[in-house]
Protein 1
Amino acid sequence: MHENKYGTFAAAVQCHCREPCRRSGLRRKWHWKRAGRTIRNVATQRAREQGPMAKITYIEHGGKEHVVEVANGLTVMEGARDNGIPGIEADCGGACACSTCHVYVAPDWVEKLPAKDGMEEDMLDFAFSPDPLRSRLTCQLKVTDALDGLVVQMPEKQI
Ligand code: FES
């Protein structure tokens, strides 16, 4: 059994990702198999209990907008995942090891976000059609009051 902030998991199992995991070198990526409650429910419920939410707008590549409230403490990726927003796959679950949570940040938000660290910069090299200024990995963007009103757009595809 394994426990992390998302809940309790029974075992690591092989997923059905088609490409090899770049970071681990494993032929396929490994994910935690859930035991009992879902990852989504536990993370969202815990974050909601903790307090305020930020309004974030996710725009699909085709232009469809999703405006959702995301609890402080979650990441922008978790906000998309918990609200079933398509276009952010997050294969590694937020470990900054897959780049499938890539988005383009609205131009007026580029300067307002915390700077990228080295690991995010490295992983963005593997993203589909990265933009040196606007590309970010949503799993590395922690939601705070400062992100209220953030607008992100998903790329045409993830990798
Ligand atoms: S979820 Fe894998 S890099 Fe963000």
Protein 2
Amino acid sequence: MSILEVNGLSHTFADKQLYQDASFRLNKEDHMGIIGQNGAGKSTLIKIITGQQLPDEGQIKWQNGCKIGYLDQYAQGAHEMTVFEFLKTAFAELYRISQEQANCYERYAETMDDKLMEKAGRYQEILEANDFYEIQTHIEQVMAGLGIDAIGKDHKVSECSGGQRSKIILAKLLLEKPDVLLLDEPTNYLDTEHIEWLINYLNGFSGCFMVVSHDFDFLERITNTIIDVAFGKITKYTGSFKSAIKQKEVKKEVQLKAYEKQRQQIEKDEATFGKIRLEHGQQWQNQDKKGSTNWTGLIRLVMRFRHTLIFHMSN
Ligand SMILES: Nc1ncnc2c1ncn2[C@@H]1O[C@H](COP(=O)(O)OP(=O)(O)OP(=O)(O)O)[C@@H](O)[C@H]1O
Ligand SMILES: [Mg+2]
């Protein structure tokens, strides 16, 4: 079952064609790495699938009701909240339910209406099922994992550096537990210890993800599938980073061999044609002068080139 289907994607910036009629799928079990040279179009691809950039052509189809969490390469946005308040917004819906429950109790004190207590009980079940009472611990764990505790939970997000903000936004995204995580170069602002924590987190992540990275060791440890953005194409390989690179090399070798074989065949055909022209040139010229067709020469020519025609038609 595909979470995302990209079909016939084409996009050009100025005179740079990033993709031409490219297609791929993101499946439920995919832990996908996105690789490609600088400027190949990896970040643009993330922007296109999140709807921030309209492609020239192509269909982007997400599975209905799918919750997407996205961290862009430069993690924009200044927030007036403290770090902790900001991270709590990952659970905004649960806090809303908790507030509804408090309202129920308040109104019950005034009205003694049992229906309000029943409603409060149902809210309680939702809160417990979603670990509402563990939120604080959960936030603290993620803060420690990504090194945000060193910034301080009462520090204002707007006063944090770009790198610190990226970590905080990543933390919020992970706390939200979306169905799909889209991370553009998440290790840029992390040191080794925190990259290690993120690797463990992503390996235990039950949803699927797409991660852009130039850090090959990181990719090797988190991926089970790779897409390679290169020369206008998007190629999907199954397996981790190293396995994808191996498959890419094999594919390139096969293509080179096929190209070499075709080149040799063309050279051979041209040599044969040259020889036939030498053999029959005078005969054809005589026939031309007489104004009639040299059928024998033509038939022999077609017979000798039969294999060449078949070869070129089958390619
Ligand atoms: N809004 C835009 N307008 C014009 N050109 C753009 C725009 N966004 C990106 N580009 C160009 O498109 C190309 C692809 O950019 P993109 O950011 O997708 O590359 P990338 O693969 O993410 O590169 P990197 O690995 O350096 O992050 C680049 O040449 C970039 O300059
Ligand atoms: Mg990029």
